[in-house]
Specification:
- This protein is of the alpha+beta class and about 350 residues long.
- The chain is about 20% helix and about 30% strand.
- The protein contains seven helices and 20 strands.
- The protein has helices spanning about 30-35, 60-70, 110-120, 125-140, 225-235, 265-275, 345-350; strands at about 5-10, 25-30, 40, 45-50, 75-80, 95-100, 145-150, 155-160, 165-170, 180, 185-190, 205-210, 210-220, 245-250, 250-255, 280-290, 310-315, 320-330, 330-340, 340-345.
- It has a seven-stranded antiparallel β-sheet. The chain has a six-stranded antiparallel β-sheet with strand order 9-11-16-17-18-13. It has a five-stranded parallel β-sheet with strand order 4-2-5-6-10.
- Strand 7 and strand 8 form a beta hairpin.
- The termini are far apart.
- About 45% of the residues are buried.
- The mean pLDDT is about 95.
């Protein structure tokens, strides 16, 4: 009998994720290494499985979903693979809702999958929708956003009303929707989704304290897991060796350590920017709202970017070798000019970040 670690998967675990409606079929899509670690339990919703061996499996999965649809059935689809998750076309997801756990930027592990399942099953998705509604209301009402690093006296102003590209990942998955789990983020992109241009920029100026966790995403298959892990290791001292960055129109112009004698993160961030100055331009300003992602995990863990706090996204895969999210729990956000008052964002949403310790 095998004694290898395993994870039990049952459709009922994910009912909340899919808004209480699993459809007629629970379609479990796994790569071989992942499937070997799973124990799959049936439930009232039958499980149908599909073997994912890489991007060449994409057409087959589309055909599998089309066959389910042609038979008059709907499906909840859970995709778990040690591969990049590439979003499907809308027409391929008619009658389907798809959630994904991708192990593309760090090796698959049973421990990580267990934590992912814990997070998505802990979330109150109706509350998430309420958080989203309140956040969008504050965005609409506020004149601008003030980023405060109280411990080190940093301030930066984000004129968010000038930003055109926003996306929100909150609430349960409904038919036709797809997301890399977990949910719990609202972000602004400086370019439209999937585009990267050097001449566009955020109207963000001042100084920001970075302390928390880096999330390093592989930009393409040609970049190895070992290379990705090395960049993560270069930046992981962000947890206890915070840095202060200066920004002019959304571009990093200077980096310095926040604490004398603790310069490793600042030094390595400067080195990254010197090697490829495209990373100096902020591509994304993200706001994590998922309290189930607390505490920050000490690994290159995707869900850390959903942790309450602000993450700054540098680079974009296919254009740069990596997309790097720097999740900082050391930033307080004030929404200024809301009915003549300043409103503390995360406190108003009930998701105040848990600071990383120096």
């Amino acid at each position: 009998m095998s004694t290898a670690p395993s994870v039990t998967i049952s459709p009922e675990q994910f009912r909340k994720v899919f808004g209480g409606d699993l459809g007629d079929v629970f379609l479990l899509v796994t790569s071989p290494g992942v499937r070997d670690a799973l124990i799959v339990e049936n439930s009232a919703t039958p499980v149908q499985e599909y073997n994912w061996t890489g991007q060449e499996s994409r057409a087959g999965l589309i055909a599998e979903m089309a066959a389910i649809r042609a038979s008059g059935r709907r499906a909840s689809v859970l995709w778990i693979a040690d591969d990049e998750f590439v979003h499907f076309e809308d027409e391929d997801l008619v009658g389907m809702a798809m959630g994904a756990f991708s192990s593309f930027s760090a090796p698959f592990s049973v421990e990580t999958l267990r934590n992912n399942i814990r997070v998505v099953t802990d979330v109150d998705y109706e509350r998430e929708l309420g958080i989203e509604e309140e956040f969008l209301t504050l965005l609409d009402q506020a004149d601008d956003m003030l980023f405060l690093g109280r411990e080190f006296g940093t301030e930066a102003v984000f004129q968010h009303q000038l930003s055109e590209h926003w996306f929100s990942l909150h609430g349960p998955l409904l038919p036709g929707q797809q997301v890399v789990l977990p949910t719990g983020e609202l972000s602004s992109l400086v370019n439209a989704s999937g585009e990267f241009e050097l001449h566009t920029h955020f109207k963000l100026d001042g100084e920001i304290t970075l302390q928390g966790a880096p999330i390093v995403h592989r930009g393409e298959h040609a970049t190895s897991l070992a290379e990705t892990e090395q960049v993560y290791r270069d930046l992981v001292s962000m947890a206890d060796q915070p840095a202060i960055i200066s920004l002019v129109e959304g571009r990093i112009t200077a980096v310095r350590p926040a604490v004398a004698g603790r310069a490793e993160f600042a030094t390595n961030l400067e080195k990254l920017l010197a090697e490829d100055d495209r990373y100096a331009k902020l591509h994304e300003i993200g706001f994590g709202t998922n309290t189930s992602c607390s505490p920050l995990q000490p690994s290159n863990y995707f869900a850390n970017e959903r942790h309450p706090g602000v993450h700054l996204g540098l680079g974009l895969g296919t254009f740069t070798q990596y997309h790097i999210d720097l999740m900082s729990t050391a930033i307080d956000v004030l929404m200024r000019g809301v009915d003549g008052k300043d409103v503390a964002l995360f406190q108003a949403l009930g998701v105040a970040p848990v600071p990383a310790g120096v």
